[in-house]
Amino acid sequence: MNILTLMIPMALLLGIGFVSAFLWATSKGQFDDLETPAHRILNDDNERKHS
Amino acid sequence: MNPGTATNCSYCGIPTQGDFYCCRACEILATQVKEMPVLAVAKNPFSYLDQKEFRDLYRHKNQDEFDFLFFAEGLHCSSCVHLLEKLPQFYEPIEKARVNFGQSTVAVKVSDNGSLAQTAHVIQELGYKPTLLSPHDNIVEKYKNENRSHLKRIAVAGFCAGNTMLFVIPVYAGLAGTWAQVFNFLSFLLFLPILFYSAIPFYKGAWNSLKYQVINVDLPITVAMLSGFALSTVNLVKQDGAIYYDSTASFIFFILSARYLLKRVQQNYLSPTRVQSFFKTEKYILVENGEEKSIPWSHAKPGDLLKIQRHQTLPTDSVLESSRANLDMSLFNGESLPKIFSEGMSLFAGTKVLDESVLVRVKVPFTESKLGVLLKQLDQNALQKSHFITLSDKLAQKLIVAVFSIALVFFFLYMNVNPTEAFNRSLALIVLACPCALAFGSPLTFGLALKKAQKLGILLKDATSLERILKIRNVFFDKTGTLTEGNLQISHSEPAEFPENLKRAILSLEAFSYHPVAFALRKAWAHTLEISTASNVQEVLGRGVQGDVEGCHYEIRHLAESTHEVETGIEVLKDGVSVARLYFVDALRADSRSAVQNLQRQNIRCFLLSGDKKARALQAAEACGIPAENTYGELFPEDKKALLEKHTDTCMIGDGANDSLSLQAADVGIAVKGSVDLSLQSADVYFMRGGLSPLFDLLNLAKQTRHVLVRNLTISLVYNTLGGTLALMGFINPMMAAILMPLSSLAIILSSLWGFR
User: Which residue of B152, B171, B263 is the best one to mutate when testing the A interface, meaning the one whose CB has the most A CBs within 10 A?
Assistant: First the structure.
C-alpha cells in the first residue's frame, strides 16, 4: 500500500492544479461570454481566399 | 438563383429571402473587406460625440480592455461578429474591437486622438445602428463579479465532492484500519473548502431568513449541511460510526449548479436590446447667444434654451417658447391623440415633439420634473415589493418544522435506550431529510421554465412570477399601446370613398410630416404609389399643412379637438372649399377583444385604467367587452396605483411611463412590446412579441411549471419519508445515503427535463 502515499498526494495536487487553472481563467473573464467565441471561431481570415 | 424559393446567403449560408447575401456584413466581407470607407468630414451626424461632455459621459473608466461600448442594432450572425471585430482595419485609431453577441454590443478601444464620431460613423456605414452605452448601462459588467464568484464556488465544490467520492469508495467496499482512517480524514479536509468557501451564499440566506423571520430554503440546507458535517466529524474523531461528507458535499454542488443556471437565465431580462430608451441616449441642441451646441440630456440646466427636433423627447419639464407645438403624450400619460400646446405652456419631460423643431426653455432640473419625481418614487418602492412566499419556501417551512420535531421527539424517547444511537439516528434523519428536491429541484425547474419562456418571447425578471400569475383574479389593462395599437388609423371619412387624385394631393402634402395623422394616411393609402410634387408646402405649427399640388391650393387643417372627444379629425380644403373630412382613432389590437373574453371566461375580472380622456377609455372598454364600471379614464400614475391597490391578486399590463408605479405595485406587472425603459424596470414580465397573446402562453407555461414543481416535490417527499423512517429505524448507513441522495437528484433532473421537453 506504500504506493498510495505517493499516488494520493499526486492525484490531489493534479486536481488542485486544474481547479486553480479554472479559478484563474474565471477571474480573467474566460467564462463571461459563452456565446461570441462560438461565432468568432467560424471566421478565419486564412480560410477564405478570393478566387 | 430563383427568387421566391428559399436561398442561402452565399457567404455564411444562412437562409435568405431570395437575396444573394443575408446581410450587409456578409456582403462587405465577401467583396471589399480590405477597403476603408472614406473619412467623413466634420459634417458627420455623430460629430457631437467628440465633445468633451459626451466623451466623459460614455467613457468606461475602470476598464483596461476597452473604453467605449456601442450597442450595435442589427448584429445577428457570425459575419457580423467578424466584421465588427475588424473595425481597426476600417479606422486606424481604433486599437481593438470586441463583440458580445448575446448583448449585441461592441466594445472598442480608441486611442486618445481618435474620433469617436468617426467610429460611430464606420459602424453605421457597415450597416448597424450604433448607440453608445454609458457605464451605467453595461449589463455584463453589473453581473460580472457575481457570476464569476458563483462559478468559482461551483468549481471548488465540484472538485471537493468528486474527490471525496473517490476516497469513500474503498471505505464502502469494506476497507478498514489505518487507510480507512486516512481516507476519512482526507474527506474531512476536502470538505473544509466547501464549508468555508462554497457554502457562503447559503449562510447569508439562512442568516437573512433568521433576521427577517421568513423561512427560506437556505435555512434547512445550512442546517442539514452543518449537522452532516458535525455528525461526520464527531464520528471521525471517535473512529466509529457514519460519515456523510460525500453525500453532503455533492448536494451542495448540485444546488449551486442549479442556482447558477437560474441566475444566468434571469439576467437576460435587462438587455439593452429590449429597451426603448426614453432619452438617455439622446443629444439635445442648446441655443446660446445664437449659436447651437449639442449637449447630453443630463446637462440641461434651468434657464437653458433648447431646440427640440422632431421625434425627440423632452429631457425635463420646460416652457414652450415657439408659438405652437404638437406633442405626443402617449408614453407619458397614455393620451392617444397628439395635443396642441401654445407659447408659454408647460411641457413635461418624456413627451415627444412632433413638429420640425420647437424652442423650449428648461424650467427645472430633471430630478424635479414630473418624470424625475416618478423615478424617485419607483426607486423608493423597489424595496417594498410585497414578499411573496413561494411554494417551495412554504413547504420548506413545514418540512423543517416536521423534521426537527420528529428528530427531537425521537431523541428524547430513544435516549433511555441508547443515548449515542439516539444522537446518531436523529442527526442522520436531519441530514437525509434535507429538502434536496426543494433546494435543487425548484431552481432547476424555474431555470428551464424561464428558458422556455424566452423562446416564446416572454422575459421574466423573477421566476416567482410564474407562481404568482396563477393566483391572479383581477387584470388591469392600460389602454394606449396595450389594448390599442398606439397609433392612429382612419375610422371614417366624408365622403367614404376618395378619388385617386385627391388621395395623391393629400399624400403629397403630408409626405414629409411626422404627425401621427400623416403616418396613418401613408399606411392606409400605401397603394397610391405615385406622389405628385407639392410646391410652397408650409407646415403651420399645431395647425396643419398647406401647399400647391397640380395647380390647386390645398389646405389640411386639424378640426378642433373638443367637438370630437373620441377621435381626431382633419379637414381638407381645395382652393378654400372644404372637400373632405377624415377622422382617426387609435384602433384596438386585433387580439384585445378575444384576450379579454378569454380571461373573463376564466373568472378573471378585467379593468381598464387609462390616462386618456374618459370618453376614449369607455369606447375602448366597450369594444373589448370590459364593463363600464371597471373603466377609469383621466388617471394620473398615483391614481392608477391607488385603484390597483384596492384589489388583491392583481396583474397590471401596460407600456407607458405612467404605468410604472402600478406595474410595480401589482402582484405581477407585465410590460408589453414597445414599452419604455421606466416601465420595463418596474415590471416583472416583458413581452417581446406584440399583442396580448403571450399572456396566454405565459399562463400555460405557469401551469406547466406548477405541474413539474408539484411532481418534483412529491418525489422528494416520498424519498424523505422513506429515508427518514429508515434512518430512525437505524437501517440507513452512509453508503445507502450516498446512493439514495444522487438517485433522488437524478429523478428530479429527469422529471424537470421531461416536464419541459
Answer: B152
